[in-house]
Structures are given as structure tokens and as C-alpha cells.
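Co-fold these.
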Amino acid sequence: MSFTKATAGKLAFAAGISMAASAAMAADTVKIGFVTTLTTGAAVMGNDMKNSVMIALDHIGHKMGGKKVEVIFEDDGFKPETGKQAADKLIKQQKVDFVAGYIWSHVLLASRKTVLDSGKFLISSNAGPSQLAGRLCHKNFFSTSWQNDQTPMAMGEVLNQKGVKSLYVMAPNYAAGKNMVTGVERTFKGKVVGKDFTKWGKDAQLDFSAELAKAKASGAQAIFVFYPGKAGGAFIKQYQQAGLRGKIDLYTVFTVDSVTLPLLQQAKLEGVLGSENTMFWGPDLDNPVNKKFVADYKKKFGSYPSHYGAQSYDSIMLIKACRRCGEGRYLQDRRDARCHEEGGLPLRSRQVQLRQQSYASPELLSAQGCGRQGRQVDDVGYQDGLHEPSGHLCQSVQDEVICTGSRPRQRAGFRKNLVGAVRVVSGSRDRQSGPGNSAYSQQLILPSCCARERNCRTAFSRPFPCLKRNDNRAASQTTHRTQWTLRSSSSRP
Amino acid sequence: MDTSLFIIQTLNGLQLGVLLFLVASGLTLTFGIMDLVNLAHGSLYMIGAFICASITLWTGSFLIGILLAIPATALVGLAVEMTVIRNLYPRDHLDHVLATFGLILCFDTLVQIIWGPEGIAVPLPKWMDGQVLLPGGVVFASYRLIIIGVGLAIAAGLYFLVVHTRIGMLIRAGASNRTMISALGINIKALFTGVFAVGACLAGLAGMLVSPITGTSIGMGNEIIITAFVIIIVGGIGSMKGAFVAAILIGLIDTLGRSYLDDVFKLVMNAEVAETAAPALSAMLIYIIMALILAFRPQGLFPPKTR
Amino acid sequence: MSIQQTEQSKPSSAGPGAASRSGQRLNAERIITLIILAALIVVPVAAYYGDARYWVDLATRLVILSIAATGLNFILGYGGMISFGHAAFIGLGAYAVGIPVFHSINDGFPLIASNNGFLHFVLAMAVCAVFALLTGAISLRTRSVHFIMITMAFGQMTYFAIVSIEKYGGDDGLTIDLRSEWPLITFDHPLVLYGFCLASLFVVMYLVHRMVNSRFGMVLQGAKQNEERLRALGINVYNYQLTAYVISGIICGYAGALLGNFTTFISPEMMDWTRSGELMFMVILGGVSFLFGPLIGAAVFLLLEESLSRFTIHWHLPFGVLLILSVLFIRGGLSGLLQKLGGARDR
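Predicted complex below.
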């Protein structure tokens, strides 16, 4: 009944092998289930993800490791239960090998067990609930996105750099909203003069008049908000209408993106111009793979992709990468490598070592194996429990999140300038090794989810050092490099 | 307490209140007169907003958008009434709920098919899109003042219509005793259709007015319809006066609750608990009010006189 | 309608005799019901061994929703109390499984921290009984549409209350990796869980059948027809209705506990007013105040959802149209339709 982690791991391993075998026997097709929101207003993100998957498939010629790829899209209707049913259907009826997608944390959490229990791989293309980084850590879970509080932590640093001393904070009243606020508060050194959590969910509050009036009265220098989707557009309009532009500077995360920007531009709402956000990715991120992705997306769909799209593109590429290693053994070797190594590693020391590596063999994209995310216990005041902040897990993630702000210059080009900082979308990769091939990585192997051990605690307990750069290009370059270094770790002979 | 902040919040509450009144007035008319539980009333709010937004983007003028969208929404309302709603009048509330929920599903899907999922942001003319300095040094968004003005004007117009015209007399009679007015040889079918179309216009107008603030989105009507039901229950079903008072009341309570509840809570508990409890309670507030009203005065605050 | 129906099927004892007596008139309904019952037993087993396990899940969900719908039908169909907040009971029942399991994994709250199935189900039913007693005592002071709205208000309050409890996941919901533990059986086997749900459904249906045809049920149905008259007879209708409301809440809480075990994921979404609406639609679609109505309604509802969503992501459109058409043209729900067909043929 109560599986230990070890048995679960073995089972997963066995399942993985047998899955590989049965899939090899069954068909020459790699089946990927992709769950996202294709109805309701949130479908705008879901469609973006779907389109990006199509681009990814085009780029790999609809083939992975010589096999045909079939992606089956399912709609979650923005409801956890529907999402779980979709996952059930994909696993039990369509018999997919991978389940990817997921915009929403609660939908992902609902589907998690179905997918992982069946021994299949679960790849989150957006949702980053903190539980999956901690208590629910699983070796078959991967993410191509982020943890909720990483991006706002970077924003906290930006605010420090800008000399902001007093801040008003607004976010929706749900788990991700709270994570975002926790993130910015962790790094921001000034005073938070006011905080509002607004109603979220199906009948989310979209009229922020009361909160904006409070913000204005509070005399804060700046306002930090997190409002994804349609609420973001609504907020920015009201920010402008309330006459706050030029009085209280606007700083956002996941609020201004290529989902909301075109709408605002269409309505000539310029309140957003000059506001700053942190973002791990931007359409103008300067690396060959991203350029190709963005250009092809624009050509095919006539608009810029959003980070939701980029992450989905990455998800397909991640799966492809797995397919290529170890001839038919799927993710197995690779996953074990990442899991053990990154999960158990005292991150501080690894970071130092990694920096010394060359960039010769950049790893594909920023897959976050579960291992990267050991259970965290940190010194900022969090206890073990359901709400596990992700901040420290990702000492390593500083390589991914950068402190910089977007500076949309003029309206004509402002979609293009929606940029924060950046992450690598890809590089070539060619490696054959599992963990066993690397003396170095063996040395680093620790049980995943090891943070319960005291020595790991100390390793996690350093504050998050954000990169101190606010020049877009320079910062993004640096990010690339550090990231590539990080990625290349497991590939070293 | 900061007085000017309080004034601003009161105005915000008033603005929310008049918007809610526009939705609730149509609902209370159809409910009071036709005894129709119309969950799809919110869909007309959404349809109005989307039509207006499209026309605004197309013509570049928000005013033209509103002027053209009102009759368009009325037409949609008529079409719905004549195809579906009309057949529901003799049925019981259960059938109403089921069929109008079906309508909601249809409308939401149709809107996604026609306008796409992303919604539309609606630009305001320059002269509406600023702030005004009110006496007492209070700075307030001019567009919200306009909404308050329009809402109050419509409320006055409806009051005149209901109290001082023949149609209003029929409406009041209908709310008091449905069977009687049909026995008096009134063309009840036409009256019902007319009332439904007026209700559709009012809901649509509310959607149009709110769209420059929140943008249009799929399902925006489902968010407001429950609040509108709360209002007509609190005000008394079928009562225009009740709907008005209750709408303003709910608007104020909701806004002021969101603004001051956490401060109040912080007086009696620690900040962290207050930050959790305040949003939860402010979300529940309107339901608590409705439950209290129903428990102690089930007929609502201003029930129409029934015979 | 309802009185007539129960008189037709009112047996001296529930059993084959009753079926044969009413069978002459209820031919079509009886055949369809038998087909559904047979399908409920055969299809999941076949699906499980035929490697189509998704159908087992679908059937389990169907059976659980049928239990809840039967609970709602007890007060809605027979008692005429239109509750628009019954999803709250399902949610509470599910959390009554989730919270003990949560604590047994994560420590804390030793009083209920357990995986014991008996504890979960007793807790679920007890919590729902108390909740139904409190809210019912207030709600039943109102009538007709006011009752609809006040039950919805209580449902929404529960929803927002649960959303605000961050410890149990708040809006994100609560993921439990363990199911209720029983002696001898395990819920981890899909067929066992399904069998348990199906047996529960039969028991619940039998109990409801017995209650409806008891004196208690007669009073309840009488109150739906003419409350004044019963009052004049010296019957305290309020007490009867409150009892029925509590029983109905308990049944839905039980269904919720099953649902929690089935999905192993519990979210406040389960309590949203649209869920109460869906439950109501299953009852109405199947035909109010028919014993098999909720089962037929839930089956049609789920199968429609399943098949339509296969063709298009915009399946809500045809679904909505079908809902409207069913209201306009099939009065008395599907059971009513079947009954009419059966009646017509016999005549």
C-alpha cells in the first residue's frame, strides 16, 4: 500500500523499460498526449501552445529517433477534473507514451497520479506547483518552465536596482498568486506598504478599482502585480484609467506577454508602455533555435508566440532528446542521471564547479528533472508542508532567471520589445552517456528528494543571488552561457 | 481613515452598483412578470459587450459602438425569446434552469467560435479616458463617473416608465398578479416579448459599459449573473425599486469589503490570518447577506405587492 | 405525476413481484433499465479485461454521480425541494477522505489522521449530516425560488471557505496519493472500486425506494403536492422535510467520499454552483421522481459529453442545443418518455 520512494522508483524503471519494449513492439509511432485549455477564455494560451507544438513537429519532421510522432491534443476546459479525465483517456485509451502540456497548477496536480502511476512520463509545459518540487517529487516528472516564485524573485532584484523603496503588491488569491508574492518579497529589500489578494477562480474579480485606489493612497513608489491571462489586460487598462501611470511605476510578472500585448495594442492602451517585467524568455531571445522558432511561428500563424508556446516547443524537443539517447530506452538513463544528480546535489558547490565547464556541448533546453527540485527547507521561514516555496531549489535557477526589465520603446515595435530576460531554447546535443559513464556525476549522486537530510538543508539555505545586470542583451548572453554550462554538466565524460 | 480614499471607494462601489442594477433590472422584470428563471440573462450581457467591442474597433468610436450594439442586442434577445424562452413560460423553474443553462453553453461556444477565445480590449475616446478632480481634492476616473451618470439616468427612466406609463402599469400588474392581466384581455405575449427585449438591452448595455474597464471575455456573463440573482432576491423579486437599492447596496458592500475588511480584521487578529481571512470573507459576503435576508425576510427588502 | 408513479410501483414488498406488476405498463422503461443494469455489470468487467480501462473509469464516475443524483432526486423529485447547492455535500464528502489522508501523510490532527475507510465514510456522512441540518434548518424556512437561491448561497459559501484554507491546498485542491483502506478489499484495483460503487448505488436506490414508499415518503410527496393540507392534518411538514434534506445530504456526502477515492484529487471546483447545476440536470434529464431517473440521466449526460467531445472541442454547442430540445420536447425527462412509450404500446 505505502510505496517507499525506492520501490516506486524501481517500479517506474521497470515500467519504463516494459513500456519501451511494448511501444517498440506495438507500433512505430511515438504517441504524445498534450493536455491544455482549448475552450473558455484561457484557450488563447492553449492555442498558442498547440500551435507551438505544431511548429516543433514541423521542425523535427514529425519524427523522433526514426519513428513517427503522433500528438493527441486534449482540452482540460480549465477544470482539474476534466483535465484528469483527459489524462485518463490519453493513458488508458490512446495509450500514449508521454503526457505533456498543462497550463494550470491545479489541473496538473489532478492529473499527476494517473500519468505517473502508469509509468508514463509527465512533462509540464507551464504549470509549476511547488508541491511537485517537494513532497510530490517524482522521477518521471519534468518541467520545461519554472517554479512560481523564481521569476518574481528576479523582479525583487530589479526593484532593488531601480532604487524602489516602497512597493504595493497585488495578485490573485490562489496558490500561484501567493507564490509570486512570496517570491518578490523574498528578494525585495524595501518596504511592502500594501498587499491585496483578489478573488480568483471562475468568477474572478476583474475590476480593480478599490485596490488601485488603495495603492494610490498608500503612496507607494511602485506597484508589483501578477495577473495572468485576461485579468492582466483588465488590470493594465484600469491602471491607466486610474491615472497611475507616471505616478506609480508598474512592475509585472506573467502579466504582459504576447497574449495580452496585441489586445492592448489593438485598443491603443499605452499604459503598459514603460512598465517592466522579468521573464525567462522573450521572442527576441538571440539564439538560432529561438530565432527559427519565432520566425516560423510568425510565418505560419501571423503572430508572436508567447512563453507558453516556447515552453511547449521545448517539451516536444525534450521528448525528442529522450528518444535519441540510449536507443529505445527512452528517458530512462537520462532521467536517472538528472534526477539523482540535480536533486541531491549540494547546489552551491555544483554551481562553482559547473562554471568551469566549457560550453562545448550544450544540453538541450532547460528541462527541470524532478531531482533539481529537492524538497526544500530554507531559512526564510518556511516549514515542511504543503506549501513548499521553490525559491531555493533553484539556486541553480539563477542561471535561468535574470533580473532585467523590458523597455518597450514605441508602439509600432512594442510587441517585439516584450522582453525580459531569457533562456536558451536549444542547442545541439549529442551525447550518449548515462550517469554511469561519468565519474564526475557518480560522485554527485545522492538520493533524490534528499533535502530532508541536514547537510542538504545547509546547502539550500543561502539566499538567492540574482544576477546583477539590467542590460538586456548582456544579461541574456550571460544567462545563456551559464545555463548552457549548467546543462552540460551531466554530459561531461 | 483617509477621507478621500473613502470617497473614491464609495464612488467605485456606486459605479459597480449601477452596473449591477442594469443587469438585475432586466432579470427582475422577467422574473417578476414572466416568473422566468433566466440563467442566460448574463449571456446577453456578454453578447452586448462583444458586439459593441467589434463595432468600436471597426468604426473607431465607442459611442457608435454602443448606439449600434443596443438594437443588435435587442434583436438577439428577441430571437432567443421567440425560439426558446417563449415555450418556457408555462413550465416550472426546473425546466427554466435546465434550458437556460443550455443557452449559456450555446452562447459561450458561439462567442468563442465567432470572436475567438482571447476577448477584446475596448478603447475609450480621449475625453472619457482621463481623471477628473472632484470637490475635496478627490481624483477619480472620468469614465467611471460617466457610468454612474448613465446608470442613474437609466434608473430614473425605468422608474418613470414603470410608475407613470401604461406599459409600466401593465408591468406592475404583471408582477402583482399574472393571471389577472391576461384575463383582462391584454396581449400578454407581446408584453412578455417586449419586456424580455428591454431586459436584454439593459443587460447588453451593462456589458458594453463595463467592457472598456475589464475587456470582453467568454463567460463574463456567468460571473455577473449569480450576483444579479442575489440582488433581485435581496431586493424582492419583481421590484424595480428593490433591485436598485439592493444593487447599490451590494456594489458598496462588495467594494468597501474588499477595501477595508483586511484593515478591520487586522485590528482583531494578526496580519497573516487577516490576509487570508479577509479575501475569503469578502468573497462570501454577498452570499451571507442573501442568506440572512432569506432567513429573516424571505420576500426581500421591497417586495411588490401581491394579490 | 409523482403520486401516480409511486402508486403504480408501490409494492407490498420490493421484489420481483413489484417488477412484474408494474412491468406490464412500464415495459419500455423496464427493458431499458434492465439493459442499463446489465451493461453496468458486464461492460466494465469486459472493458477491464479487454484492455479498455478507460471505460471502467467512465463507468465508475457514472455510478458515483448516479448515487449523488439519486440523493438529490430524493428531495428534488419526491420532496419538491429544488436544491441548487448539493455539490457542496459532494465536496465535503470528498474532503472528509482527503483531510484525514493528508494528515496521515503529513502529521498533525491525530484525531482524524488515518487511512481507515470506515473513519472516512463515517466522517463524510457525519459532516454532511451536520451541515445539512444547519443549512437545511435555515433554508427550509423559505419556499420555491428562494429555496433554490439560499441553497446555492450556502454552497457558494462552502466553496469560498474551502478555497481560503491554504493548508488543504486552497484553490489548487488537495492531492491524496492513498485511498481509503478496508479490510479484505483494496480501492486501488479499479474493478474493486467500481464494484463497491455499484453495490453502493444499488443499496442507496433500494433505501430510497423503501423510504419513498414508507409513510415518511408519502408525507414528503404529499408536501410537494399540497403542503397546506398536510399541515391541516396536523403533520409537521418542516420536520419531515428537514429529515429528508439531511438524508439527501448524507447520500451526497457518501458519493463525495467515493469520488474522492476515485479521483484521488479533491478540489473546491467540486462544489461550484455549476456542479450543482449539472447534478440537477442529470436528475431532470432522467426524469424527476423516478427511481431510475438519476441513473438514466447521469448515463445519458456522461455518454453525450463523452461522444460529443470526441468530434469537436466546441461540443458544448450541440450539448446545449440538446439540453434545450430535451426540455422543450421531452417532458418528464427520459424516464417519463420511456414510460409514455410503454404506456402507449400497452393501450
